[in-house]
């Protein structure tokens, strides 16, 4: 454990508990002078003190962890990168803020999010009053999705109440792992009076995978779904019928700003439950640890696709039973990010896309092949990434299919637990230097830079040669 100075957090805890220094020192079993040194950052927190805080106040020691600090630093860097602020804030200052006053840091990040939301609304209104209706629609359509993504990001992509409920139902039903579809069909019929049909008629509609008729209590599934996909759709319907109140309670507490965001959040939470039901937490985590997080082996074992396994691996953050903290992303060939989830501190930029040096884009040139990469961010943190393409198609000959690249990553310190580190030279100095996107990346000599970073000026000759509208390479 590195030296961690958390004096301001201790002072805040003492104020919240309405304790004097002497009273807190007594509860923790340390001397008054030692507590005074801790609160004034003259001594670092130690493991015994952290364990005492957990025992006396029930605090999760993860709240003092380096990962949360790194998340906040990344968020602050993006929030304060606006050149109109007139200040260039050093990383050392951001780190001090994140370490000593995390509540202030989170408040700044939230203010920036509200500012961005207001700016998007202003841009949308301007477009509405003008002639660019397409730009208006694009701005308005993106906001609810980003709001829901932010919600899952702030939850570390783990919704404990839904995970626990799903595991309890799976245990009660004694569903066979990897062959849950018949059991889920019987459960819907016996508990909810729902008849399940595999429907090839036009009534289901093109591209529709699940259609529920509440009047006739009939659930129709597309015949294009494989057994694992059928199980997922059945589990989603169970979430809608059985956990609607719990899901609405979670959404209400999140205080989303629009009905569309609330609707998207309910769908996302129902899908989360479905994944947790067909991949029960303890069973799935034990199997993942046993096979060293081999995604393809897990896919065969549980009868679901590569992408579903990746998504579930990014949610294994139950208190006292944590898996490797993964980040998960799905992109298309154009670089559009349709899914991004983070169980830990990796920050996905919302400004200017992602980095072309990232192996998630190389996957399109190697369809179906698993690619690995050691990647180093500008803050010198190194990550192990695994990427592969996935395709989804429901039509016949000539029908267009959807192809994405999905990637799963983690901090390099977890590499030994993962099969994909096998044969790799785990040396941070050999890692590919990547960034969060050109607008917020400060690497001056990157050969793939598309435009200057926000708030930082490049040399005039470099700007003219590389970023002029009609410049040649």
Automatic annotation (TrEMBL):
Belongs to the short-chain fatty acyl-CoA assimilation regulator (ScfR) family. SMART domains: HTH_XRE (SM00530). The keyword Transferase does not apply. One of its GO terms (molecular function) is DNA-binding transcription factor activity. Gene3D superfamilies: lambda repressor-like DNA-binding domains (1.10.260.40). This is Cro/Cl family transcriptional regulator. Keywords: DNA-binding, Transcription, Transcription regulation. Residues 10-64 form the HTH cro/C1-type domain. One of its GO terms (cellular component) is cytosol. It comes from the Bacteria. InterPro entries: Cro/C1-type_HTH, HTH_RamB, IrrE_HExxH, Lambda_DNA-bd_dom_sf, ScfR_C, TransReg_Diox_bact_type. It comes from Bradyrhizobium valentinum. Pfam families: HTH_3 (PF01381), Peptidase_M78 (PF06114), ScfRs (PF09856).
């Amino acid at each position: 454990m590195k030296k961690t100075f958390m004096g301001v957090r201790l002072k805040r805890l003492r104020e919240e508990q309405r304790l004097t220094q002497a009273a807190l020192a007594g509860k923790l079993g340390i001397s008054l002078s030692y507590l005074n040194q801790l609160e004034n950052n003259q001594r670092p927190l130690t493991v015994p003190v952290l364990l005492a805080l957990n025992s006396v106040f029930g605090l999760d020691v993860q709240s003092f962890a380096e990962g949360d600090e790194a998340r906040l630093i990344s968020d602050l860097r993006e929030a304060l990168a606006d050149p109109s602020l007139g200040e260039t804030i050093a990383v050392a200052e951001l780190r001090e803020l994140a370490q000593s006053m995390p509540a202030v840091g989170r408040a700044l990040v939230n203010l920036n999010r509200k500012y961005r939301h207001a700016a998007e609304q202003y841009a949308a209104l301007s477009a509405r009053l003008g002639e660019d209706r397409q730009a208006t629609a694009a701005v308005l359509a993106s906001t609810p999705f980003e709001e829901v993504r932010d919600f899952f990001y702030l939850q570390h992509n783990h919704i404990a109440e839904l995970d626990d409920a799903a595991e309890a139902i799976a245990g009660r039903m004694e569903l066979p792992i990897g062959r849950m579809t018949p059991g889920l069909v019987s459960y819907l019929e016996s508990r909810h009076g729902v008849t399940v049909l595999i429907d090839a008629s036009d009534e289901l509609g093109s591209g529709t995978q699940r259609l529920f008729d509440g009047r006739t209590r009939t659930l129709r599934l597309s015949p294009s779904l494989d057994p694992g996909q059928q199980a997922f759709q059945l589990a989603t319907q169970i979430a809608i019928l059985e956990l609607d109140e719990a899901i609405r309670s979670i959404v209400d507490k999140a205080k989303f700003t629009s009905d569309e965001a609330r609707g998207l959040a309910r769908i996302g939470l129902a899908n989360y439950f479905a994944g947790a039901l067909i991949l029960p937490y303890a069973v799935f985590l034990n199997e993942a640890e046993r096979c060293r997080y081999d995604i393809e082996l897990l896919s065969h074992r549980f009868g679901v696709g590569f992408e579903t396994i990746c998504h579930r691996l990014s949610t294994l953050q139950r208190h006292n039973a944590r898996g490797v903290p993964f980040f998960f992303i799905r992109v298309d060939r154009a670089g559009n990010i349709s899914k991004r989830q983070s169980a830990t501190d990796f920050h996905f930029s919302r400004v200017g896309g992602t980095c072309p040096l990232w192996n998630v884009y190389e996957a399109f040139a190697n369809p179906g092949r698993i690619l690995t990469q050691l990647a180093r961010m500008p803050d010198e943190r190194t990550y192990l990434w695994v990427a592969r393409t996935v395709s989804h198609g429901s039509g016949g000959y000539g029908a267009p299919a959807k192809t994405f690249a999905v990637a799963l990553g983690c901090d390099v310190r977890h590499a030994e637990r993962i099969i994909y580190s096998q044969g790799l030279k785990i040396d941070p100095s050999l890692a590919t230097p990547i960034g969060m996107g050109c607008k917020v990346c400060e690497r001056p000599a990157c050969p793939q830079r598309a435009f200057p970073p926000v708030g930082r000026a490049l040399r005039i000759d470099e700007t003219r040669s590389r970023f002029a509208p009609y410049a040649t390479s």
